[in-house]
Design goal:
heterodimer, A: about 300 residues, mainly alpha, 16 helices, about 80% helix, globular, B: about 300 residues, alpha/beta, five-stranded mixed barrel, 8 helices, 7 strands, about 20% strand, elongated
């Protein structure tokens, strides 16, 4: 019984921590829906595949969102005609390459820019590689319900349709809220299930045991990747936890923790599964894992 | 309408946690502004949804009255009524029908989605917040790296047992702050740590244990037996956290109780005694140990956690 209560405490605390950011995410998503036109995106986005992916990596700088809020924003941008490689690159880098997270990393690692640079650089490299490869494999955006996007973008009932027809700011704002609520409910359930699983992991899998497994660079990077996935911390707090592992883990494996966690953890895997096809999500995670592992080994070589 | 209940349910749950003060068992109160803004936002969204749905219902009723019996099947109406007049509604009606054909098989799924969202509201409101205790120390893990090692070489080394905020400051800045904090404690011959200065005081002590050797130190915490500790030794710990319970860590000190003491895991105790040094076999190093002169069992404090403020 005690265990269940403790499990519930961690579960609720994760939900509480994530919900403010989910709300920010869905409102940004609603704003994009109402105010960003397809042609705006096609004007900014370079036609070139690689440049588009690079642009995607850069957009994150302007969206202060952590991984809980990024999935709805990405879905909305893809719906608005953003190319897949740019959308994926944005989704993966967004929770890392943003002012709040970089600053907390700077503070957590003793006011040094080195880890900030490693984190941002490795994140961009991993996201870029994964996004470009996926864009070759998928010609169309692999939404789970291809119709859903359109269904959402055109308002469901008559009264709203007439309202959105008028282009006044007032009715646009109305649309923003309608979409934000829609979005909140479509990602909320995955967040809740994800937080629950992560809380189970924290309760039943002793991290101290896992930490003993990291004996060589490859296995310690893998342990850190697994840990990042299982404990599903918010990307704004994970730098402090990573910093506490500094005595036992090398810079390379810590960079794996800091890059992999915000891109893939239990919570946002479930949110991704709610939006994209299962096969696509699995492939995405496999690619991220490979590139993070390779990248962290390289970081380990360079920075020791 | 279900959405309205869920949104306002979340807002209400967050509000209740703030209201009863249980919020500090879940998140660091330093970040309370985030959940307060979430309450406001969800409250507003809930009201919005309520107004929207009731307006929609009113409109539907009006429509029904206008169209008479065939209002149930929009498609039929569409064919019989003047096409030109309703031309602009075509899209939305089409959508509406589309939505209908899709809704039936998905209804169960949607209901499941709502049910899932109700779970945290219900458990948050009705299950008591349970503080982490000794059964969790193992899962969280604590280690005790050599604190004599220079913090410059290996900063952030001691996140367990010994709180280390050096990571929050620059090198000079930290020395300054550490010195200042040390001054707050080092000149007292009896140091009693409160919930407020627990992390600060522990850090000062671990930073310069020699300066504190022989002083009388008192603090509260829960007992944890751990491994390979003989009968009279217990760790006395507090859980401290940065953001929320999910990222908490364990901070405290090894305490030597009198032989006669009977303590079990999770007993909350107040201990005070002289600081000394002992070899702790599992870590293979000497660590500060508090030799208890006075101790008593206490009730679990209202707020079992300590925070980094």
């Amino acid at each position: 019984m005690t265990t269940i209560l403790q499990l519930n405490t961690i579960f609720i605390s994760m939900v509480m921590e994530a919900i403010p950011f989910v709300l920010i995410g869905v409102i940004i998503s609603g704003l994009i829906q109402a105010f960003v036109k397809d042609r705006h995106i096609s004007r900014i986005m370079p036609k070139n595949r690689f440049l588009a992916a690079l642009t995607g990596c850069g957009i994150g700088l302007f969206f202060p969102s952590c991984e809980c809020g990024i999935v709805p924003i990405t879905r909305r941008l893809l719906n608005k005609g953003m190319p897949l490689q740019a959308g994926i690159a944005f989704m993966l880098t967004g929770p890392i390459v943003n002012p709040i997270v970089l600053f907390s990393t700077y503070i957590a690692f003793g006011n040094s820019w080195e880890m900030v640079g490693i984190r941002a650089g490795l994140a961009a490299a991993v996201a870029f590689s994964a996004a470009v490869i996926l864009s070759y494999l998928y010609k169309e955006i692999p939404f789970k319900h291809p119709a859903e996007g359109h269904h959402l973008s055109s308002s469901p009932s008559g009264i709203e349709a007439t309202l959105t027809k008028q282009t006044s700011v007032r009715s646009k704002l109305y649309g923003v809220i309608v979409h934000a609520i829609e979005e909140f409910f479509s990602v909320g359930k995955y967040l809740v299930i994800g937080a629950f699983i992560a809380a189970c992991m924290q309760t039943f899998v002793p991290t101290s045991y896992m930490l003993q497994l990291g004996s060589n660079p490859v296995s310690s990077s893998l342990v850190m990747i697994a840990l990042a996935f299982l404990i599903s911390l918010c990307s704004e707090a994970d730098a402090f936890i990573a910093a506490s592992f500094r005595s036992t883990f090398s810079t390379g494996s810590l960079s794996a923790f800091l890059v992999f966690g915000p891109m893939v953890d239990i919570k946002n895997t479930l949110m991704l599964l709610g939006v994209f096809k299962t096969k696509f999500v699995l492939l995405l995670i496999a690619l991220i894992t490979c590139f993070t592992l390779i990248g962290s080994l390289a970081v380990g070589r360079i920075f020791g | 309408m279900i959405r309205f209940f869920i949104l306002s349910g979340f807002a209400f749950m967050f509000f209740m946690l703030h209201y009863t003060g249980d919020i500090n068992k879940y998140i660091n109160t330093k970040y309370a502004y985030l959940s307060i803004s979430a309450i406001v936002m969800m409250g507003l969204l809930g009201i919005f949804e309520f107004v929207r749905v009731s307006r929609k219902q009113a409109a539907k009723e009006r429509q029904m009255a206008e169209h008479g019996q065939c209002s149930d099947h929009d498609g039929h109406c569409h064919e019989t009524s003047a096409y030109e007049e309703h031309g602009h509604e075509h899209d939305s009606e089409h959508d509406h029908m589309h939505g209908h054909s899709h809704e039936e098989p998905n209804k169960f799924k949607r209901m499941m989605g709502f049910a899932v969202l109700f779970v945290p509201i219900v458990t948050g409101l009705f299950l008591p917040a349970h503080a982490l205790d000794s059964s969790f120390v193992k899962a969280k893990g604590f280690s005790f790296p050599s604190f004599e090692q220079n913090a410059e070489q290996n900063p952030g080394n001691h996140q367990f047992l010994k709180p280390d905020s050096s990571i929050f400051y620059s090198k000079e800045g930290y020395k300054e702050v550490a010195d200042k904090e040390r001054e707050q404690f080092v000149n007292r011959s009896v140091i009693t740590l409160t919930d407020k200065d627990y992390l600060k005081g522990m850090e000062a002590i671990y930073n310069d244990p020699y300066a504190f050797t022989g002083k009388t130190i008192g603090f509260d915490g829960f007992a944890y037996k751990g491994v390979q500790v003989d009968g009279s030794h217990y760790f006395v710990f507090r859980f401290g956290f940065l953001h929320c319970v999910a990222d908490s860590g364990v901070y405290g000190m090894l305490v030597e109780f009198p032989k006669s003491a009977t303590i079990s895991d999770d007993d909350w105790v107040h201990v005070s005694g002289k600081l000394s040094w002992q070899l702790y076999q599992p870590f293979k190093q000497t660590i500060p140990v508090l030799k208890v002169s006075e101790w008593n069992k206490i009730d679990k404090p209202e707020d079992p956690y300590v925070y980094r403020l």
